[in-house]
């Protein structure tokens, strides 16, 4: 490989056995993928769901399930002069988390629910850097502060379910950068987050990349994000690479029909079509799709009210210690227009306090409880 290439994927082919007793041939999910990740750069792996993006990233770290997956002969993943596909489990464990780290899609399912987040971050430091418990705790607080979590001392003692989705993702990022890896694989790290938190996470990743001078393999289906953060883009479909190049060049002059369709499917800001375009609309280049009908912007003011909420309130009680005092947490009080997660759950699951009134289409909603 060239000196400025950190990791190279060469003719990667991955197949899955569909059933232990099935006579069907294995399904080939990745079909001869090849691309490079340069030093101190961001490469975006783009494609719709099922295109093979996550399978490719899992193959890099040797995390594919051995019971039903197979990396076919001839595949190579080159890093530091070695083919990672030939390393033993012990050698891969020494590499994961230290040289190459990964942020997974769902932080809530990736974090262990029975251990505090501080313990889980400290485990990485103890295994790969040999820090003592005292040193590991000090480093955990530094990492939580670095990724923007308020009150690191208190949050390090919290369990994953006690944190918001954005805080959970920040914990995953802290765990991933704990050992200053050379390559960070981010597998759709903002998928489950709202737009404002997405922006914060993307800005955090960009700042950490500049600070630690690491390369990033960013897996996403959001082309708007790719245009903001990526130096190079690799477009995948059905396990194959359809286009690979500098982000500006691919966005400005896409050569493949699938890449052109992906770009054309972005919702227009200046229009409001009644139907959003899909990829299949643009794959048939012989007959371009007709212009969609437009919706009228704005409201007339006499639309019927679908759901009306007034004086919504809910409190949660928690006990500190075996005989500790009971504290009250109020996630939402007197909400009228802005709905939080706790408030939305009140509509259908959590019993309402007596001071709450929820109506739908003008009818009192309390009878549903």
Task: Report what the structure shows.
Helix content is 31%, strand content 25%. The protein contains 13 helices and 16 strands. The chain has helices at residues 53-60, 89-95, 107-110, 117-129, 133-146, 152-156, 165-177, 195-212, 223-229, 247-252, 257-264, 280-283, 341-346; strands at residues 5-16, 27-38, 42-46, 69-71, 76-79, 82-83, 100-103, 183-187, 215-220, 232-237, 240-246, 307-310, 312-319, 326-335, 357-360, 363-364. Strands 7-8-9-3-10-11 form a six-stranded mixed sheet, with helices on both faces. Strands 1, 2, 4, 5 and 6 form a five-stranded antiparallel sheet that branches. It has a three-stranded antiparallel sheet with strand order 12-15-16, with no helix packed on it. The protein starts with a strand and ends in a 5-residue tail after the last strand.
The biggest beta sheet reads:
6 strands, mixed
Tell me the total number of β-strands: 16
| Unreliable sequence segments | 329-339
Counting H and I runs of at least 4 residues, what is the number of helices?
A: 13
Question: Helices and strands, in N-to-C order?
Answer: EEEHEEEHEHHHHHEHEHEEHHHEEEHEE
Residue-averaged pLDDT: 82
Which structural class best describes the helix and strand composition?
Answer: alpha/beta
Helix content: 25-40%
Over the alpha carbons, how many angstroms does the gyration radius reach? Answer: 24 Å
